[in-house]
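Each field is set out underneath.
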Amino acid sequence: MTSVAANANRSLYLSRILLAAWRKALAEEAVPALTLQQAFLPGAREHLVNAYGWFLLEITDASCPPGAAPPRCASELPEVPEGKAVSGELRECQRLEQVGWLGDLLSGSDVAPGSQARTSGNLASPAQSLGDCADVTDWAEQLETMMTRMRDSLDEY
C-alpha cells in the first residue's frame, strides 16, 4: 500500500473513531445534541476531507510534499500532463464535488460561536444545516465505498 493510500485509510479510520464517540455521547443524552454537533462535526468532517484528498492523490498517482496537507478538492491537484487523459475516476470525483454527497461534505462550513441566537440554558448556538451525526456517517460510508470501488477498478489495470 502506498503512503497516500495509507494516509487516506488512516484519516477515514480517525473519522470513524470520532463518529463512534459522537454516537455514544448522543445515546448518553448528557450533553445537548447541538453542543455535540459543534464539538464533533468539525473534526469528523476534516478527517473525511483529508481522506478524500489523500485518495485524490492516490488515484492520480500524484504525491504530496512531506509535511504538506493533501488537496481538499480535485481543482487543487496538479495539472494533468499534456497528452495524458483524465481518468474516469477523477472525472467522477469532480462531478460529485459539484453535485452530490461529496459536494455537501466539501462545502460544509462551521457556524462561529455567537453567530446565531442561543437558547436559554445552552451555550451552543443553533446550527444551520451543518450536518449531523447521521450525515457524517453517510459521508464516511459513501467515501469508503467509493474508495474501495475505485481501487478495485484501478487494480484491474
Confidence is low (pLDDT under 50) at residues 111-115. Helices lie at 3-28, 33-60, 88-98, 101-107, 133-155. The chain has one domain: 3-155.
